[in-house]
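P.,

For your records, the input lines for the assembly:
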Amino acid sequence: MSFIGLLAKENEDRELLGGLLGELGYGVEGAGRLEEALEFARERKTRAFLLVDGVGADAETLTRELLRAFPLLPVVVALKVRDASRAVALMRVGAAEVIAPPWTPEDLKLSVSKGLRFQGTALSVAKAAPLSRSPLWYALAVGLFLAAGLGAASLKRAEQNRLAAAARVDRWDLPVRHPAGLAYDGKSVWLVEWFTQSFYALSMDDTTVQVVRHLTAETPVAAAFTGEAMWTVSADGAIIRRMRDDKMTPLTRYPRAAPNSAGLAFDGLYLWTLDARAKVIRKHLVDRELSVLAVYKWRGTKAAGLVYDGKTLWSLDAADRRLLRHALERPDEPVDSMGLPEYAQGNYIPAGLAWDGKRFWTVGEAVDGKSPARLVRHQEETR
Amino acid sequence: MMRASFLVPALLRFPGASARQDAWGRLLKITAGGAELSTGARLTRGETVLLRFELGGERLTIPASVRHSRPDDDGQCLAELRWNDLVERRRLARVLLDVLSRV
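Structure tokens returned:
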């Protein structure tokens, strides 16, 4: 049995509190004066003290004296009048707990047990983790975790799919046999066919023919698109600027502006043409005569196409089956070249080149002249 | 986190509108952001309470709001408080630094 030292000046208080503590299973040694309480505490194995604060029994002084003699024993003070400031003052001098009136067995029990159990205040400058969190917080945390996991997994999958798609080379056989050039208008790839004197707009997904335009008066060999116009070159070297309407209405005609043309490209300011026979690249000012500003030697073998990728010019060399990269300042000195392994078997000769913003497209004419032309979408990494 | 050799007692005052008597309790944990309080008074979440206590020889009076509250094993109220007054929070942080630097 645990003994509690009870110090109360008035007999009534001793009897009341002694009875309550007895109900709780504690042994009680009642004392009216400090000396008696100290003597009982020395004789018995007292676990704690219970003081009554009142007139003639200042609990502050008594608490100090008790703690001086028994510094490790908890001192619980019972107030006769509820006074929060007094309670705090008593705790400040060392009272483990203070009980307000009316005294109840429950209050006594929890005060004594708390007094026996409490250690000390934990101090930290850093903010502590919350004591408890609501179920909503946990639900949100779990939801966020799952969402982050799913997001990361889907991003990873999307990246894998993108890389797989980028590495893929697509080939399609076309319903024509004599391609002369390719162009990209922002939505579709346009095939130029000299034999039927036609332009074919092809779907980017499966290259089905979406639009066909026949030009009965001329033989087209190359084309290029700008924001508001379509530029075509015919076999006689005429460059024609057209509206981008259903009829490809001619706007301006420049006779013999691009003889033996293998391709043309527009860089946003100048028009560039590639002359296959003279093996030169011409830089044109877009004026009334489409004046030639400069002529640069082209250092390939057999010119077959020319495109602008937003930074540089690329020309297609059909004999060597490769692309040559040209800086706009010095097109006569290729800064890079890229092989076209898709034409390594020799069954097809590349005849046209386009750039869709991410990949190169080429069209090849069968060597036997009878098989359908083949359209190739090259893999992204090869650029 | 350091543990003091004593429990810091605190006086609890409530806004006049709540018409509640002053109460007292023990601060089980004190940080610059808030505190953990054990008290016989019933505190509810969102309630505002003014705490007065002494630490490192300094008297602090800080308004706090109750973030969480639940009964402990003894039936008393165990509450997590967050300090509301930025100025007093800074002062408390300085006091804590001072107290902890002496350990």
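Two observations worth noting. Residues 63 and 85 of chain B are 6 Å apart (CA to CA). Chain B has a mean pLDDT of 88.

Regards
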